[in-house]
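Q: What would this complex look like in 3D?
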Amino acid sequence: MSAEGTGSVARLLAWLEERAGWSFLVDLGKHKKVPLHRHTIWYYLGGMTLFLFIIQVCTGILLLLYYRASAGEAFESVQFIVSRVPFGWLIRSIHSWSANLLVFVLFIHMFSVFFLKAYRRPREITWITGTLLLFLMMGFGFSGYLLPWNKLAFFATQVGTEVAGALPVVGSFALRFLRGGDQVTGGTLTRFYGIHVAVLPALTTAIMGLHLLMVQKHGMSEPPAIEAEQKAKGQAGRSMSFLPDFLLRDLIGWCAALGALAALAAIFPWELGEKADPFAPAPAGIRPEWYFCWMFQTLKVLPPHVLGIEGELWGILGISAGALIWLLVPFLDRVPAPGNRLTRFFSVFGWVALAYMAVMTVWVYLPGGR
Amino acid sequence: MGEQPTRRGFLNWFLGTSLGAMAASVLYPLARYVSPPDVPEAQTDRVVAGKEGDLKPNDGKIFRFGSQPGLLVRTAEGEYMAYSAACTHLNCTVQYRGDLKQIWCACHNGFYDLQGTNVGGPPPRPLEKFKVNVANGEIVVSRT
Amino acid sequence: MRKLILALILILPVAGAVFGGEAPTQPAGPLPRETACFKCHSEMDGEVAEPTKHADDDIHFLKGLSCHDCHGGNPAAPEGDMDAAHDVKKGWGKPDRVKIPEFCARCHADASFMKKFDPGARVDQYSEYRTSVHGQKNARGDEGAAVCVDCHGVHGIRAVGDSRSSVYPTNVAETCARCHADAAKMKPYGIPANQYSDYQKSVHYRAVTEKGDISAPTCNDCHGSHGAVPPGVENVASVCGSCHSREASLFRETEAKKKLNLSACIRCVVCHTNHAVLPPRDEMLGVGKESTCTGCHAPGTPGYAAAAKMAESVERLRERIGEASGLLDSAERKGMEVSEDRFALQKAQDNLVESRVLAPHSFDLERFLTAANAGIAAAEAGAAAGHRAFAELRFRRLGLSLSLVVIVAVIIGLALKVREMERRSRE
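A: Here is my prediction, written as structure tokens for the whole assembly.
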């Protein structure tokens, strides 16, 4: 961007340059190149995910100025925020909608990276940190969902922690660790709050820092197909510089996301629900948030016993095995290339996984689908 | 060629102004959000039932406590007492009777003494009593 | 020796007093289950064994009294010797049905005797009974009139406070209905037999049986238990008024202020009936088909006009409350927080209850209008709150539209900038 020529701004920038040497960042940005090809659009998704995460951090910090993490006050404090705090309704609804949008965009980002084989050498660490970030974001979602302490959240947490309890060997410890006891109580709420605002943010800072560092170090990966095409044509391939071209386009996307969030918050405000009552029976139709639904439905459709082992255990082990393969895919598909059979297998694996998750998620929402 | 700089200048101005407007539309709600609202906290376990001087001695008034009605009584001696105003018989709202110095339920003639104990009529249980504190000219009623 | 004779002279009269006499002063002799009576009768079959089957429930037995304390005879008779046990000289016998009240009163009207078992026990049941219709007919030898055992049972008499007792509040109506719902039994007396079936339709019956609320009235609460007499028509208001004191005092105020004697209209009963007391409905007020006012107030009379006005006000208040409530519900569904406004609307609901009470019981149009209008004002405030919530919603949407305009402007600006930079880089 052209420097605004006025004297005071130029003097300020010069002052900063002498002390912080900020211009090296600008140079870095100008030298960073983003390849231009038919799959360039997917490059925007990482930044979009980051933007939505930053929105979460900001709205989350604002919410915790008024939120109280005890069973007796949590629901009332959220009610207070949406009714008595000016624009509290806006901050709260944006936080809830953005959480869902974040997970959605994250999945698209992850799958686009997967299908475009961006995990291959030398970007293995980027992939691993990325998968870990997926788990962390789902942890944010799970812990944050309980915080308004309403009926749906209470029972969804009960079901979710119950599933954790079904893990082999570590199950009972995991259940008690998550719940802060044997049942879901105010103790669980406080624990989840600590996890949501301190533990997970700390872990995310470290792992996302590493992820972004790796992205800067290795630059944008070009899909193997594109690389092969360019080699065949003997061309170098076009690119645009990050600063200002890519960033400006990024900003367009971010503004659109901000507008979408504002619209969702005003037109479809997030519900308060009814205050949780640990002694009331579970209402019909409890389910976790949509991004957990496919796992939830998997466990539901498995028969109680398969080959002498509990069906639920098969489900958990299956999902865990899937997650492990996903995490380690850079080491399994070592040299992704267009003709490679292994590459094609993993592509199919990815499509099957995506289709499976989509179908299982939709199934939960069908009438009588449970 | 002279058009270019003008168009660029306009564009820069347009972008700058709209970015500024967007920044304002983000910062305004934020600023309003962080400035303290009219009541500082959710009134669940504690509520300000009134100000000193609202009630004369030997008088009572209804206030809201969460989603239930409460009864604030100022005795003839000037002491403040507070109870749940939901009658334990069939949930009508009770009232203070200065002539009897008792709490009365008009629906079926139930009576409670100033301790909240049910002393006459159908009510089967005493009224829940709340704690009262007077601070800074305000009468604060709390559950425990 | 002289001392011994002196002792015997002193002791014997006392012993005589202790072991002789009509009413037993202390449970003397063998324990209830050890008496010859119990031991023999419990081993028999059929009717004669019945009394022993209820021993665990019977309050007399539990207090240490046994068969001979009422029936006489020799409790210490040798085993198998029926004649010795059934000793008429020791008072053995069964009282006639008509003589039962006197029989029970031997103990139950004796304060010093009852004190031994329950210091606070009442001892006026017999004298009350004699004032009752049952007691008066019984005094004239009528075998059909109820006596003590018809309500309390004879063997296996549970304490009144025992919820399984036939005279516990939840069971009283059924007990009375044993005779009073039997048309054949009531025919000789010219009493209808529909009271129980009417009562079963009432709110009082529902409160007692479904909600288990024993503060709600059953037969004895209005009619008395031992002194059972239908309240005279002039007394009905006092009977109903013993719980519904507000309505009763309103009636009395009206009578005093307007110098009326409303006993001609039998007060409560004319609108609410005596047994089938149904939940009151707004249709009972006013000049419509189901109105209870038009029975006395003919069209053209001031009473008729007042009734019409009252019904109209109540309906208006109800409508306003419904409107306000609907607005608040709708605003809440659209995401607005309205719990405080809903609480304030409760005041209008309280006013509605008050108006409904004032209209047909005080007959005072002005007083009624004060309450009704206060309610309408509160309901309108509630509706205003609902409108405010919608205004806030519109403000939010307006704010949103403006922000979206700004954001779209930024996006356009950025897009144009991008295009311009691309063009510049091409040159």
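A: To summarize the key features: Chain C touches chain A at residues 334-335, 337, 339-340, 396-397, 399-400, 403-404, 407-408, 410-411, 414-415, 417-418, 421-422 (CB under 8 Å). Residues 33 and 39 of chain C are 7 Å apart (CA to CA).
Q: Very helpful, thank you.
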